[in-house]
């Protein structure tokens, strides 16, 4: 198809079409998937220098935009590029006009932001272990939430940093994608468990008896069992859906919904739970005047949990729109990388018990210091 304007470019102004558009189909079948990748050669519309060849991408047309998933660039020279795709579709070759600068800035923002978030997650875990006073909601949920996020962000950072070496090994890339899906789903499950425990606590207006009612073994089985089942079923039903260009779930086979589906379900469930919690607190506040301090304490815990929910859950909604805007992509990376920072701020720095414990430690290390 010599007239590529029939399809149009991506919304990114730095994208340039570097080939004519080609389309491949199989007759007498509607199945576009292939058991083995198909290789095809595209001729450049203009000769490229060696530096420009590094910015090329093999893409295919999906509904109304060019996407990369399922297609890889195998080799290229100044005049031709060989692409490999796992399905048949309408293909083309695009080039970023300023790829190095844009990529370097995004990688720097990503590395710094994720590193700061991981440091805060480590500090949060240390705070939870050192300050052992019981809270209204068992610390099992917050500790495992931090562990899941810490491991997920660490694996994500290592995968993206070593992507050039990992991508040629498709099995390794697919395994890393599955582990990332498991860890991020675990974080959402632990967040949902905390909301359920908070709902039970508010309904009873008493501390949860962790040993007899909701022991850490049961919570751990639920917190890691549910995401393990989701990943296991997804891998069994569609094993070829793991391992995109970024070693994540591939959009071309819609396996990404095995992550987005449970996430959307948990977000909606948490909104319903928080609505019930708010209604329960309002009725308790008018009924129990003798326990105003206890209710106020519960309200603080509810407020922190709701803020945590919006901070950890809502930024993932931006994931639906990052393909259309670099600004949204940067915002998505920043908000999700700073989840550990927000947890440390909410549950540690703004926690009265933690501040009192820090004062005791400061008086112990500095006995001559007077109390302010």
UniProtKB/TrEMBL annotation:
GO cellular component terms, A-Z: plasma membrane
Organism domain of life: Eukaryota
Membrane topology type: Multi-pass membrane protein
MF (Gene Ontology): G protein-coupled receptor activity
Record's subcellular location: Cell membrane
GO process terms (BP): adenylate cyclase-activating G protein-coupled receptor signaling pathway; cell surface receptor signaling pathway
G-protein coupled receptors family 2 profile domain: residues covered: 106-351
Assigned keywords, A-Z: Calcium, Cell membrane, Disulfide bond, EGF-like domain, Glycoprotein, Membrane, Repeat, Signal, Transmembrane, Transmembrane helix
Alphabetical list of SUPFAM superfamilies matching this protein: Family A G protein-coupled receptor-like (SSF81321)
Keyword Protein transport: no
Pfam families linked to this entry: 7tm_2, GPS
Domain GAIN-B: start-end pairs: 1-101
Keyword Cell membrane applies: yes
InterPro entries xref list: GAIN_B (IPR057244), GAIN_dom_sf (IPR046338), GPCR_2-like_7TM (IPR017981), GPCR_2_EMR1-like_rcpt (IPR001740), GPCR_2_secretin-like (IPR000832), GPS (IPR000203)
Record SMART domains: GPS
Residue ranges of the TM segments: 108-131, 143-163, 175-200, 221-243, 255-281, 301-324, 330-350
Stated family: Belongs to the G-protein coupled receptor 2 family. Adhesion G-protein coupled receptor (ADGR) subfamily.
Protein name: Adhesion G protein-coupled receptor E17
Species of origin: Astyanax mexicanus
